[in-house]
Write a structure and sequence with these properties.
Blueprint: H1 3-16, E1 21-23, E2 29-33, E3 47-52, E4 63-68, H2 75-91, H3 98-140, H4 146-173, H5 177-187, H6 192-206, H7 224-232
Keywords: Coiled coil
InterPro entries: GIR2-like (IPR040213), RWD_dom (IPR006575), UBQ-conjugating_enzyme/RWD (IPR016135), ZC3H15/TMA46_C (IPR032378)
Pfam families: DFRP_C, RWD
Length: 240
């Protein structure tokens, strides 16, 4: 390796990368590298390029390695970046190539950054699409089957019975103790239709003037059964 050529190259590199380049005692260098472009809100990409110059440099490619700096890289990404650097080094055999390697690495980091941003956008679009599909499915409802209808009917009947029980309880609370007892006594022996007619009759009575007398016409109703029973007990004398 020509020490003069390498010394000149390192002098240039120190001028270009005054804060990024670190010279090691064994002659190796480390250069912190970032993408050429940055994106707002994107995770920063930054690596350290370790360069170990071979004895016959620049007639051979230096040994290269990458160390992430506060950044997450998977093995495939690191491998791809090193392959790119190896290819660029082969194209520059016989020439000082460190600056070219660093420049290409910056380009590749920019490309990787764009790919990551695009991947995040696709993930966001996928998430939004799934949320939209879920909302559409919710608003469309579930197709009704015999089983789902039966389950709904049981639940509906239970809710209806609960509602009626609450209404009945509220109605009883509005009555006096004596009125509640009488109401319950009649409710246990009257049919639903009879209860309805009785309640309607009571409501009509509430509209009557105070002191008016109501007449229970049911006392005068006679059924066909009653008439038949009476006819069976009618006897005729011999004189008739």
């Amino acid at each position: 390796m020509s020490s003069g050529i390498l010394a000149e190259e390192l002098e240039v590199l120190e001028a270009i990368y005054p804060t990024e380049l670190t010279k090691l005692p064994n002659g190796d260098v480390q250069i912190d590298v970032e993408p050429e472009e940055t994106e707002d809100g994107a995770e920063p990409l930054k690596v350290t390029l370790n360069v170990h110059y071979t004895d016959d440099y620049p007639q051979s490619i230096p040994q290269l390695s990458l160390e992430p700096i506060d950044t997450t890289f998977d093995d495939e990404e690191i491998s791809q970046l090193l392959q790119e650097l190896q290819s660029v080094g082969e194209d520059n055999i016989g020439m000082a190539m460190t600056f070219t390697l660093v420049s290409h690495l910056r380009e590749q980091l920019s490309k990787l950054l764009r790919e990551r941003i695009e991947s995040l956008k696709k993930e966001e679009q996928q998430r939004e699409r799934l949320e939209l599909e879920a909302e559409e499915a919710r608003t469309r409802g579930t197709p009704v089957t015999v089983e789902s209808f039966k389950a709904w009917k049981v639940k509906f009947d239970q809710e209806l019975a609960h509602k009626k029980a609450q209404e009945e309880e509220e109605k009883l609370r509005a009555l006096t103790f004596k009125e509640r007892e009488e109401y319950r006594r009649y409710a246990t022996r009257l049919s639903g239709r009879q209860l309805f007619e009785r309640n309607r009759h009571l409501e009509d009575e509430s509209l009557m003037e105070e002191g008016a007398v109501s007449v229970d016409f049911s006392q005068y109703e006679r059924t066909e059964v009653d008439q038949e029973e009476e006819s069976e007990h009618v006897t005729f004398s011999d004189s008739d």
